[in-house]
Amino acid sequence: MPDTKSASPRLLARVLGTVERVGNALPEPATLFAMLAVFTLLASAVAQAVGLAVQHPASGETISAVSLLNLAGFQKIVQETVHVFVSFHPLGVVIVCLLGIAVAEKAGLIGAAVRALVLSTPRSWLTPIVVFAGVMSNVGADVGYVLLLPLAATIFHAVGRHPLAGLAAGFAGVSGGFSANLLISAIDVILGGLSTEAARLIDPTYTVTGLANYYFIFISTFLVTGIGTWVTHRVVEPRLGSYDGGIKPEAMVPLSAAEKRGLWFTGVFAVIATAVMVVGIVPEGGFLRNPAYPDLKMRALPFSYLVPFLFVLGFGSGMAYGLGAKTIKSDRDVVGAMNDAMGTLGAYLVLAFFAAQFIAYFNWTNLGFIFAVKGANGLRALGLDEWPIPMMIGLVFLAATINMIVGSASAKWALIAPIFVPMFMLLGFSPELVQAAYRVGDSVTNIITPLMAYFPLIITFARKYDRDTGMGTIIATMLPYSVAFAIAWTILLIAWMLTGLPVGPSSPLYLAS
């Protein structure tokens, strides 16, 4: 009788090994993005020649494919090359945050904090803490990619576990768990606004608030944490095995008196910085609030201040620790730390340049928009109107598929909300439920699409520990998380629909009429 228990892991290992080999057989990621950019130019010319076009689901305007393989396209490419690179969204976030983190790392704060965490935390808790921290980091927009992921790799390495497993667990929480949280963030408000516009095609008075999916994303936080922990322990770490690279782990020795004093100085600085932030946000007329929204709503919160604030937090924490532990002697130490950090970004800058050009070309051609609308129309044409749960499942997987070619959560929802929100409203289902289904699909494939803006940064972090890491390595490592999240989260959505529980405050599953 065949041993099915051992056959399944062997089959999974073969599948993931194939994915990794195929992915790593591709050219260098920078070269691949350059090739994709060229392919986009050729595809845009063919698409325009055959008259590829769709109607905008909201305005009815015809959106046609735009060729870049002509004089106008050439001029646009030449004129916008520098602007596309310097305005590439992750670039500024990465550089500014790393400048602050560099001071904290050079001063010894990162190492001391990791040792304090590891020495005081049971080993079995490390993985769920990393995944959970990744999910919660989404309150700060994209900063989890820059701050948490390298720290997660360092923590795993310090306790003798594979650092890429820590990177994967953090990435699964930050990106795969993008639509889960215990708190409300800017994306909740943005998606609610887009859902409101779509809902008003049917009911001009309907409003979807930023709290529309709060109950659902709250419960999803624990789901993502549990599933992410299970996949890390049962699939990812056994496949990666033990780490035998050349990077030495942080020695787990007890903190010295100087290090403890440095951490106390850091804690005092963090309390002061947080107090300043609270004073600037909470009182009416606070100096950090958006004057256009005097009442304390999500739109009034200074999400645009987060990156500079994190730079100040990293820089100030490093300085406080350095003064307390006496590891910073002069300004040369500080500037030298920043210089060293910029030196490590060389490979990422090359990747970012070509990735930025490709993503820009793809947007200019309208191909992403056209594929998204055609996919949505195709799903509706399946005739599942009488089967709401299969239709919702279809929406989840449509969003997951579109996410492979259109990275922005709000951009995708702007494309397909005017189709699906009115359609499901006519069937008696609320826009809040439709938005929740979309958010599931939007999250689960974030971690396996090279078009995700931070994917080049993930490769850069991984290559610190393994220089041979390629796109295939990351995709093969993250694929089990993506599949597990898709299955578990879809089951949660189905269960939610069957129970009839609201997905958020004043957000029932069904319309009153």
From TrEMBL:
Q: Which InterPro entries match?
A: AbgT (IPR004697)
Which GO biological process entries does UniProt record here? Answer: p-aminobenzoyl-glutamate transmembrane transport
Record's Pfam families? ABG_transport
Q: Which GO terms describe its molecular function?
A: secondary active p-aminobenzoyl-glutamate transmembrane transporter activity
Q: Which residues cross the membrane?
A: 32-54, 84-104, 124-152, 164-191, 211-231, 262-283, 303-324, 345-364, 387-406, 413-431, 443-462, 474-498
Q: Which UniProt keywords apply?
A: Membrane, Transmembrane, Transmembrane helix
Q: What is this protein called?
A: AbgT family transporter
| Biological source species | Synoicihabitans lomoniglobus
